[in-house]
Amino acid sequence: MFNKMLGAFGRGGGPTVTTVPQTQHVEPGQVLGGAVHLRGGRADVQLTQVALVLTTQVATPGQVVTGEFHRMALGQAVHLPAFGQLTLPFVLSLPAETPVTAVGPAVLPGVLVELRAEAHTTGAPAQADPVPLLVQPLDAQDRVLDAVGELGLSFRDTQVVAGRLPGAVQELDFIQRMFFLPPEKYHERLREIELTFVAGSRDLVVSLIADREPELARRHTMSRQEALTADWPALLGQWLEQAAARDRDALMDGLPPSPGSGPGSLD
Fold first, then answer.
1. Whole-prediction pTM value?
2. Which of 95, 115, 143, 243 has the fewest beta carbons closer than 10 A?
3. pLDDT tens for residues 200-250?
4. Which residues are CB-neighbours of 216 under 8 A, at least 6 positions away?
5. Shortest CA distance to 187 belongs to which of 232, 234, 154, 150?
C-alpha cells in the first residue's frame, strides 16, 4: 500500500483528493482495488461525480497526446462537508488491451499508463495528479517475449500509436508496437522486427512484421491458453528464417502448427 497525493482543486483551503491503490504492479485485464480519499476544505462542496480514469500517451501524426482509454465513476452527487473526510473504495478492471509498461524489473521507455482521479463540480472538472502503473505482460505474452529473447532479438523501443491492427478485434483505438533488432546472424538481411499484441479476454493476436514490409509479415491468432503451450521459439524462428530469405511464398502459406495463424501486417 502506498499513498500518492493526487492534488488539490479549488483555491485557498479547497478540498483535496488522495488515491490509495493496493499496488502499482498490475497486468492487463486484472482487477485493481483501492480507495480514493476526499478531504473537505473550508466550505461544503457538492460533487456531481468522482471518477477514476486510465490514460496513456498515444502517438498520432505529428504529435504525442495523453489519451483516456478507460473511465469508472465512483460516486454521483457526493456531498463533502467542510473539513470532513470521505473514502470511496474502488474495484477497477483494467482493459485487456492496456499497454505493457514493464517486463519483469525492466521499465519500458516510451510508454506510460497512469491512473488519475477526477472530481466534478458544477464548473469544470478538477483533475488530480496521476499515479503511474507498472503493467506487466500477460502470461501468454510473456511466453512470446521469452522466445524473442531466446532467439537473440534485442529490444530497441516501444510505442503506443493511434489506429487498429487490420482484421483484429479491438476495443481500444490504439495499439502498442514493440521494436527489436534481429538476431546477429540476420543483421545483413533484416533491419528491424516489429511485434504487436492484441489481447482479448480469452484470445491473443501476435503480429510480426520485418522491415515494415507487409510481404514479410506473420500473424498468429489463438486462445490465450493455446498461446501458453505453443512452441514460440520454433514458430518465431521459422518465420525469421523465411523473412530473412525473403521467402514470400512460404510466409503467405502460413505455419500449419499454429491454429488460426495467417499473414498479417500493420498499417
1. 0.84
2. 95
3. 999 999 999 999 999 999 999 999 999 999 999 999 999 999 999 987 667
4. 209, 210, 243, 246, 248, 251
5. 154
Q: If 0-12 CB within 10 Å is exposed, 13-18 middle and 19+ buried, where does residue 167 land?
A: middle
What is the DSSP secondary structure assignment for residue 246, as one 8-state letter? T
Written as nine digits, the cell of 246 is 525473403
**Each residue of 132-160: b (16+ CB within 10 Å) or e?**
ebbbbbbebbbbbbebbeebebebeebbb
Say if CB 176 and CB 99 are below 8 A apart.
yes
Strand partners, 31: 93
Rounded to whole angstroms, the Cα distance separating 18 from 35 reads 8
* Grid cell 480519499 in the structure block, residue: 37
H-helix or E-strand containing 226?
A: helix 224-229
